[in-house]
Amino acid sequence: MAWSIADVARMSGVTSRTLRHYDEIGLLAPAYIGGNGHRYYEQAGLLRLQQILLMRELGLGLREIAAVLADQVDQVAALREHQRRLLAERDRLDVLARTVARTIAELEEDEETPDMGKINGPENLFTGFDTTRYDSPARTQWPDQAQRSAQFAATLTEAETERLQREATAAIVRMAEFMQAATPVTDPAVQAEIDAHYQGICRMWTPDAAAFKALARNYVDDAQWRAAYDQVAAGLAEYQRNAMVIYADARLS
After folding, report:
1. Predicted TM-score of the model (pTM)
2. Domain range enclosing 55
3. Is residue 63 domain-shared with residue 143, that is, in the same domain?
4. I need a labelling partner for 135 at 20 to 30 A (CA). Which of 89, 100, 201, 213 fits?
């Protein structure tokens, strides 16, 4: 049995345009093209599309997915590995759900504008967030630097990771305080915070202006990162991005 590209788009939620793009880059070819010029897919194609979508859900880029599929021999074994990763992701999301529930409970104790300094353990705001899982524009464009970053993270002890997380959360809170005080992102104090942020990144790799701006955009463009920042203070993700762009133009260009 074969399904038209429109049928596959309807069943999978993937647009016909995306399916054609997958064909163009050699990721998912149709079984055949009909006399009407339409693409048709058979069961093997649907199973391959399922694998592609699973890996997209797990944060892999298209080039990484193509490499995985090219090396794949045993389809059942591959699906078992996808299942394992999905179960791990489910567990991570459970942790995130508990993190948000705890934050809601703490904030509801004070219906006025929250004072982050009064929230017990503000570092707990980000429990469950995996900063290595995002295929940000910078990671996609600069894979060597992303690899060095991952290698650096692998050398950290659990205590060091927790310390860095606490420091990062404290920096986010300070940025929120600047924003709530209507401090311009060009203010020297704000830019000093961004410089500290940049120097922290430089422990792993050294982004140039374009890379730092790409990271800045990710705080707004990535839904989970934006939610993480904006749950501290509405609009904080954009404030952080704008401050980083100013820093990149002034210090890294």
Report:
1. 0.47
2. 3-71
3. no
4. 100
